[in-house]
Known about the structure:
Layout: E1 7-12, H1 17-29, E2 34-38, H2 44-48, H3 56-60, E3 63-65, H4 68-72, E4 77-81, H5 95-106, E5 111-115, H6 124-127, E6 132-134, H7 147-164, H8 176-192, H9 201-215, H10 219-239
Parallel strand pairs: 1-2, 1-5, 2-3, 4-5, 4-6
Amino acid sequence: xxxxxxxxxxxxxxxxxxxxxxxxxxxxxxxxxxxxxxxxxxxxxxxxxxxxxxxxxxxxxxxxxxxxxxxxxxxxxxxxxxxxxxxxxxxxxxxxxxxxxxxxxxxxxxxxxxxxxxxxxxxxxxxxxxxxxxxxxxxxxxxxxxxxxxxxxxxxxxxxxxxxxxxxxxxxxxxxxxxxxxxxxxxxxxxxxxxxxxxxxxxxxxxxxxxxxxxxxxxxxxxxxxxxxxxxxxxxxxxx
Length: 240
């Protein structure tokens, strides 16, 4: 690769040791080394025999986390993969379209590529922690890829973008844990003033996540919006 980049592969609740091993092998083929497993549904002994071949070092160094939020908290950009449509999965980009942005951001702060369980993929709650969504173009006859295949396709496009020299990022994004905290504060403030209700809470917050994800917030912008949330809560209290 033309410059060091920090791209993390996160596998959420994987169930197949062979898939995890093959994903580790794909990562090493494409120059990626950081693997994180979120609540894997397989034992350590299964992992030790996974089909990583010469990428056993990637597998051995893999971290395990109890939640996706923990796995991506320090990342500036979090991208969830999906093969399905729906209101929570719109505005998806292909790995080729998003690879230059991934490389540019990964020079400043870790970027996470998040892959869901083999049986049903990422949930809407999982995708709620992702700023962007990746969909790999496939035949309409059978759109679902094997987990390791999906990792390989995404890692390959990132590898090519890094070799070609992606442009520098316009700004260094705030870590995901800060954006998640901001969204919690905004949700609380909007509930206080009655903008959110039990009926529309999930849909509107999803839209706000999507807006902020597309905006790509830096730390200064996060602080401004946190101050706005605080002012909304203060004004609501004064009126009461």
